[in-house]
Amino acid sequence: MPIPGTPSRAELVEHLVATRIAGEVATPRENNLSHYRKLANGDRHYWLGLELGERWTDEQDVLAVMAERVGVNDDPEHRYGQDTIDPELTVDGLERMAGRLRKAAEGRQRVLLATGHPGGLLDVHRATAAALRAAGCDIVVIPDGLTTDEGYVMQFADVAVLEHGATLWHTHSGAPMKTILTALEREGRPLPDLVVADHGWAGAAGQYGVDSVGYADCNDPALFLAEAEGTVQVTVPLDDHVTSPRHYDPMTAYLLAAAGLS
To answer: Residue 168: in which H helix or E strand, if any?
Structure first.
């Protein structure tokens, strides 16, 4: 590390495991199951801006989707200790996302990028925005003066974030994205053709009817359920806050190369 240039698929899988972006990740099994249970019990904090209704009220159904799409242990009796993200599924997700980014670039579409996890993923989104802009996409500039109950909705390096107390804020809420989209409509501006995001930013965009792709950790099941239902187009499984944001650089290089943007 760092891997020079763009890694091969095999090199990227090895890197993801070595940095714990995938493989045996830091998120413990008991945290995963707790979040699956809370989502199934209707705790909207875990719905990530989506409207799941009564469709996911059995936590075992949630676990089954997470085993299939993320690679967590599918044994409901495994309740404590280590859990996993399958790095092959991470790369599969990156390749699906790359296909949608390629479509955006070919159509010079309007793209909005956002993150609720700026400590880990801000630069992933910034690099994606720069590559899309270079390809001719219109990177959406959000309206000024937007707020939610948590803070100010801002934009740094072409990425929408939540700012609170002069600090970029970690948030699962879908409210910031909904605030942006309703403000664009209020100003008579077109909605994005594509949102690239994570957490509630991605969920709320999909729920609003905008094409949405994003990243999610193994303890954030809502976006994977939304992908299963077709509300979100792509959800890439990964640990969304490892020890250094630089660990995501090879992943970003692979994504942009697969999309024809590097």
So the answer is: strand 167-169
